[in-house]
Amino acid sequence: MGKKLSELTLEELWQLFPIILTEHKDYWKEWYREEESLLKKLLFTQNIIRISHIGSTAINGIWAKPTIDILIEIPKEIKISKIKNILLENNYLLMNETEDWISLNKGYTENGFAEKVFHIHLRYIGNNNELYFRDYLNEYPKIAKEYEKLKLNLWKKFKHNRDAYTEAKTEFISKYTELARRKYKERY
Fold it and tell me: Which fold has domain 5-181?
């Protein structure tokens, strides 16, 4: 029997879960809606502010990792660990955590990716730059295509290095998130 996911080194994880990009799929929205519905059932007793589809699968027409990113925003009065524990009890895996945010996933197995993969970004209200970035790229398809081109180039370079892939996108994301925040002000 192989190692558990929690026992793998970062390099082993990158080999098992390489960066994979695919053309935009319409069914990603349905996958999001199904998972959102499940999350609402799991967290119905909590004071969730908003659950949102973020990441490249939420941007129309661009290539993306076939992973549905979901942002869950909670009020500052709720202990974030309480929500985390509910999700852990329901087969989500902890990826990273700080005092203010927690990342979990679902769909990672000892054999690689499951058919449906989800990244859950659990945060306090207001830590939601991804919503602005998503909206801006959906409003400006030309900018979205620039982002797609960047991602496709980085994919070739960093297929087995998720951290480097993410870091190399940071400048682009920061630039357009800042423009979006100025344009949309306090939309969220």
Answer: Beta Polymerase; domain 2 (3.30.460)
